[in-house]
Amino acid sequence: MKKILILLIAVALVIFEAYQGQDSPLSTEGLLQTFTSDNSVNVNDGLQRAFKNRQSDLQIQGKGVVIKVLRDDTKGSRHQKFIIRAGAEQSVLVAHNIDLAPRLDGLKKGDAVEFNGEYEWNAKGGVIHWTHKDPKGYHVPGWLKYNGRIYQ
Question: What InterPro entries does the annotation carry (predicted)?
Answer without folding.
Answer: DUF3465 (IPR021856)
